[in-house]
Amino acid sequence: MPNLASARSKVPAADATLRILSHLATARGPVPASAVATALDLPRSTVYQLLAVLADRGFVLHLPEERRYGLGVAAFELSSGFSRQQPLSRLGRPLIAQLVDRLGESAHLVVLHGRDVIYLVEERAPRRPSLVSDVGVRLPSHLTASGRAMLAALPPAQLRALYPNAAAFSTRNGTGPRTASELRRLLDQVRTLGFAQEDGEITPGMASVAVVVRDHAGWPAAAIAVTFDRDSVAAPESATLAGQLIGTAVELSRRIRGRAA
What we know:
This protein is α+β, with helices and mostly antiparallel strands. About 45% of the residues lie in helices and about 20% in strands. One of its GO terms (biological process) is negative regulation of DNA-templated transcription. Keywords: DNA-binding, Transcription, Transcription regulation.
């Protein structure tokens, strides 16, 4: 395997350029060039020169009145290309299949989209009950274990924006949180336990546990969940299942160069 430090030393401009883009991607908004130079410990002249090239190519947007720089349209197009290539599905599918083989229960990989979750990967275990979830299916995130695992990883302000009032809450079987305060208490429990649970809120008699998969900035990129017949798995075993999920989530996070929970 090539020595990465050696590779960086041979192409310092490329390394500095990518560091600048990564820094802008994790910033909450456009930042001054001087702040970029300080944060990355790079010469200001180098940062200005690279920002000028990136702006000319559309990867960086210069706000002259504010004297700040943010990501440009070309950087967004890279993100769109990442989505089109479905790397999460490709990287996650074999891991989910291995999880099903180990546990003998159905498992899935899910992403957050607004107030819903979307199922990217669904692996059914043999001789297990059929599920309402499938690839492409959308379900309310606050009712699913996978959704709760991701919602618990969001900043409070974003959570409030997603659930501003009682009208944002839907139910399937008359159960689940119906107010923002109820959801906050539920997500506090998720953070304390380190995993999320759901019992009969999607399908009566079926329960799920889930853990979050974080991206490079620590944001929820996805969640991994296992769903099982409540009669076949006792409640105390949920923590054991979650422990199995955490190992898979850490591996998927590593594969997408994310941050382990």
